Amino acid sequence: MSFRPMFQQRAVAPLAASLLAGGVALYPRRTAFAEEPRDLKKPIYDDYEDEIPTTRNIPTPTTPAAVSSSIIPATPTSSSATSSPTPTDILTAQVRQARLFLYQNSLAVETCFNNFLSRALHIENAFTNTVASLAPSPESGERLLPGGVYVVVAAMAGSIVSRNRGLILRTASPLAFGTVAAWTLLPVTMRNVSDLVWEYEKKVPVVADSHLRFRAQAEHFYHTGVAHSAMGRAMMEEKIGEARKKLEEIVSKGH
After folding, report:
1. What SS3 class is residue 4?
2. I want to staple 154 with a disulfide (CB 3.0 to 4.6 A). Which of 17, 49, 181, 182 is the partner?
3. pLDDT tens, position by position, 6-35
4. Taking the model in full, what pTM does it have?
5. DSSP 187-227
6. CB–CB of 252/244 below 8 Å?
7. Nearest CA-CA partner of 93 in 83, 105, 101
8. How far apart are the C-alpha atoms of 197 and 193, rounded to whole Å?
9. Cα–Cα distance measured from residue 175 to residue 159, given in angstroms and rounded to the nearest whole number
10. Terminal-residue alpha carbon distance, the chain
11. What does 120-145 look like in DSSP terms, one character per residue?
């Protein structure tokens, strides 16, 4: 009796195994996909709820009258148009005019001062460059210090020579002595000075023409004087030669 349940369990186990195998064999096989949608049924009615506009989304139309009223500003009232300016407004306008007047005058004064400084600096630079251009070049070998001292001494000598003469001679003699000494001792510097004077004289045609005529006459007198001196020297040498010959003849006859 005790072994009957055991025999019944052993008889049921093969029967259950055969039923399970038959169920697996008869069950329809189907491949399962990981991303396959769960619900493959197509709905009968399409859902157009998102496309149907609601009363909340429909914009309210604007009438032309409303647009014109929003664009055109409100016209001032007759009371504001006829109101006179207040004392504060009048004072503000006067202060503004006074500030503009002061600003314009101060700007004009500043501009004039800047222009004056610019002209002064330009004149200073021009004077410095002019003085520097009068100096002789290092290649010429001319020195201003000893030559200038000699020119001053020559001018003082001319003043001493003509101290007992007339006013014109006392004025012209130092100038003549100094000019001759300057052209002799400082030829390069005097050439630069004469070129600078000529540049200023060309700005006045009358003075330039007078200078050219005076220079031509001076050169003519100089060349004439040189020629006459050469002729006088030749005549003197000739006379001296004749006198020497006569003296030799007299001496030879005396012996």
Report:
1. helix
2. 181
3. 444 555 566 666 666 665 555 555 554 445
4. 0.46
5. HHHHHHHHHHHHHHHTTSHHHHHHHHHHHHHHHHHHHHHHH
6. no
7. 101
8. 6
9. 9
10. 215
11. HHHHHHHHHHHHHHHSPPGGGT--HH
